[in-house]
Amino acid sequence: MNLHHSLLRHAAPLLLLAALAAPAPAQSPPDAEMHFTTGVTHLREGRVDLALDEFKRAAKGDPRNPYFQKGLGQAYAAKGEWAPAIAAFRKALELNPYYVDTRNDLGYALVMSGDREGGKKEFLAAFSDPMNPAPEISAYNLGRAYLEEKNYSDAVSWLHTSVTRNKAYPAPYLLLAETLVATGRGDEAVLQLEAAVREVPKDAELLLALGRAYLKVGKLAQARMRLDDAVRADPAGPFGRAAAEQLQAIAK
After folding, report:
1. Residue 15: which of 86, 157, 158, 119 has the closest Cα?
2. pTM of the entire structure?
3. Please, what's the b/e burial string for 43-65 (b: 16 or more CB within 10 A of its CB; e: otherwise)?
């Protein structure tokens, strides 16, 4: 999926599509379970068309299995086919109303289809559900949705909520800092990223973001230190390379 770039790099798309970690229920036919498992592997490895075919076969073998419907929806979403994705996610929730993280998938598909209000309602329903295993993701999704609408106040509020729910989750720190920078609050952005690095000290993306934020507010020595840390944390990866390029630009 394409990632956007600005002062601080977005950590993820609007929705962090949840892994299909749960096994298919035992009562499903073995062939359907096999197709589901194969579809999960294809989807994780980026073979979306093959994944879609396998999930279709799984759902045909057991149309009342919510995991199969969720997988089908995620494959359609990965292809940008929002109407069938929405239908599959809704079917999964109809079959199992307690499958709460599917509301995040449904919210994402609705937002991408143009129904932003419907999508935000699903994110809010997911966040408010006591069965939600990861409310920080639902709060993050709401924060990002509001940021895309330039509703900075609500974006900051929901991103703060996401951070509060899980201080070891990097994505909301990154987006919160970006939102603060967009509203002229660069010093607050630095404070948020400093807090993030204290919680997740080896995360190269956070280190890179903090280095760039220090540059933005004129703290050159601190910027060099954190950019060096990012290079060490991710020497061959994209964040380490970006930090090395930033250091070269500073040296010129």
Report:
1. 119
2. 0.85
3. beeeebebbbbbbbbbbebbeeb
Fill in the DSSP letter of residue 81: -
* Number of C-beta neighbours around residue 10 at 10 A: 17
- Domains in the chain with CATH codes: 30-133 (1.25.40.10)
What average pLDDT score do residues 63-82 get?
96
In this structure, what DSSP letter does residue 19 have?
P
Task: Compute CA distances 39 → 45, 80, 240, whole Å.
Answer: 10, 17, 33
Q: Are 151 and 117 in contact (CB under 8 A)?
A: no
For residues 91 and 89, what is the distance between their CA atoms, to the nearest angstrom?
A: 5
pLDDT of residue 17: 45
| Burial (0-12, 13-18, 19+ Cβ within 10 Å), 73 | buried
